[in-house]
Amino acid sequence: MSQTVQHQVKGLKLVDILVTIVIAIVFGIVYKLWSPVYYAVKPFGFQADQLVYGMYFIASTVAYLIIRKPGVALLAEMGAASAELITGSEWGLSVLVSGIVQGLFAEAVFAAFRYRRSGLGVVCLAGVAASIASFIMDLYYNYIDDLAAWNLTVMIIARTISSIMITGVFAYYLVKALELTGVTNLVRPVSQADYDALENP
Amino acid sequence: MNFEHRETWLHRVNPSVKLLAFLLYFIAILFIHNINVLINLTWANLFLLFAYSGHPYRRLLLYASPFLLIFISSSTAMMFFGEGETTWVRWGLLHITEESFYRGLHIGFRALNYAALGLLFALTTGPVRLFYSLMQQLKLPPRFSYSFMAAIRLIPIMFEEFQTLRQAARVRGGLSGRGPGAAYRKLRFYAIPLLAQSIRRAQRIAVAMEAKRFVSNRERTYYYIIGYSWRDALYIAVLIGSFACAWWIGTGWPYFDITDVRG
Fold first, then answer.
1. Fewer CB atoms inside 10 Å of the end CB: C or N, chain A?
2. Phi, psi at residue A147, to the nearest 5°?
3. Is B147 in contact with A82 (Cβ distance < 8 A)?
């Protein structure tokens, strides 16, 4: 019995892809609407904007928590970035490249746990991994290594807190609330508990 | 973006060619550290945007209005708090140096370049042509392309649902208050039903597609055939030409006496 369960989890079916991309597009629009929030708090240079930065990684963790299959986190973050680009993002082309890199880093965390863990800790870790990807981009894009040391420290701490709170904790409880509506049962792979329920009604 | 506009030659450039060219251009710009070259390149890209996007100037100015905010917000952190040798202003934590000022300016112009390129791409590339081209030229599996195209069709329905939720909240007089707690409640109030409905709809669409024998791993025929044309060559030539000109003018007749903004 456990053999068949293992077998069914592999690979993305049309349902998984379509649901992931729809979630991605919802968050792509959220990203687009989030940009004014982001640059409204930015111009002071005190890195206050970093406290809302975690929102930009959230598609990957939410999609993974809903579908729980390999490749979903990456596909969701790429999809959200594409949607943001197609709707004419102010950040332009950079969102597409950022989306790919951040999605890859978040995906790597889920892969490291062999896609078996989806607890709060793992999700927060994926958020932090995505923020590391964004720092690597910023190193080339914004020369952040040339900032004053205190300013860079504030930036790193604020963005890490944000990625834990928004990408990790907020995404986790958002999906917990979604589970109550029952939609996650439509798209998640069948678990051993489901088979046990059939055996002993 | 489906507002009325003229079709220009940029609309007819193969979308896959355009996307790949833009990505290479993106990487090339990352390695420009000479502010004079970057400023010239910005003029070239803004010119392409205003001359060949096919949209009227007034609407373009509206779309481009956030560019100013992007420019300011991208450059200020580096200007005010960057490292440098030649101090201009020092006031508490604020420390503006000549080096950090030009580095900040450079970052601002870089953001402006990406913004102009991204907007030009969005305004001249329809999603349907883009995904058909990705399937035909770059061999993207159809289950990804059709998922994207189906999902894009769901956006208007999502907006309608969003309006319904907003009106429902207004009728009940709920969702008032300020602060992070109220903001969180508001976000949940909209996000949960919107996501739940979208997932249900996406699942039903996928089931329907499979019931209609949508199989992605077989040879497909396409309603739209997207090919190559002379415009692709012209487009690549324009990109390379603007790059070369920006470089030539930027190094020959510089605005500032700086060749590398890095510390």
1. C
2. -80, 160
3. no
Q: What is the mean pLDDT of residues A88-117?
A: 90
Query: Which member of A29, A39, A174 has the closest CB to residue B73?
Result: A39
Q: How far apart are the first and last CA of chain A?
A: 17
Domain containing residue A24: CATH number = 1.10.1760
- Amino acid letter for position A25: I
Nearest CA in chain A to B68: A90
Q: Judge whether B98 is closer than 8 Å to chain A, CB to CB.
A: no
Q: Does any domain span residue A70?
A: yes
In a domain, A200, yes or no: no
**CA proximity to B109, closest of B190, B170, B37:** B37
Residue of A24, A143, A177 lying closest to B78 (CB–CB):
A143
Domain, as residue range, for A181: 2-190
Q: Summarize pLDDT for A3-60 with one digit per residue, the tens.
A: 444 444 457 889 999 999 999 998 888 888 777 777 666 656 567 778 888 889 999 9
